[in-house]
Amino acid sequence: SAEPSEPFKLKKSSDTDPWNPAYTIGRLMSTKKPGDISATCANELSNSCDYERLDVTYVYKNWEPSGPGIPTDKSNYVVPESRWRRRLLDEGEKGIAYSVITEPTEYYFARTIVAADVDSMLSIYHQDDTYGSVSLEIDSFFDDPIVVYCSLMVTTHAYNGDKLLLPDNSTVIKAEKYQFEVQGGDSGACAFNLTYADYQQWIDADTFNPYAFKFNVIASVYESDNVTNDAYQVIAEQLDFLVCIPKYKFADRIVCQNGLKWYEPSYNLSFSCDGIDGVDLESVADGFCDA
Asked: Fewer CB within 10 Å: N-end or C-end of the chain?
């Protein structure tokens, strides 16, 4: 076979999960506790199964420090000032930092897009969760301007991860790209949105019932507008947004056609339940009466 014209190059390495530290492989392993499934877990409307879970993480693996160590070469060292931001330095003080912001956020357990009419969501739940957005924010530590090329591709997937074919036999819900310039020491963002209008025609098809939309976001950073040179850094993020097509709507939750549940978020609630008999503090604010 012919030799490749250019060998693969290692762009960077990471001591922790490079995509999302909250979901590092092996961080948490669980199974169902012995015994029958409780009525609250089996109930399609509540689906409250927290007490059915048995954490077996330390049964199958020994304790080990999961935090990042300090490398011999600190030029690519992760700055500890923010868990979600990586500082990518490889030429002294020249480099970039980036962070990823999404809407809806990962409230409770996952980002979820409610595939419903915007007006109906606002009238019942007083918030719009019918869209998804990703903003890849980049801070420049260069003295000179840099050029960032942004691209987005949204695909739709079944529960097992397979791509779903749309009625027109394509797999892409939305594709978009653009570029911008960031001045030295300044910031910019690759920002993309997927609105209800972008996917409504597919949701209206009776045979289309996706489990998730996958956002593939890429930012290629160049030290000049000459793209024939190698990119200084290529940032790639894959983010899953679960999809809820409403089957039943209730005052504070939605039962989805694919079996998921969407719960209206309750933020910054305070409770004073200490010393009250019959109240399990871990279940407070789960939507069910405790006492």
From this structure: N
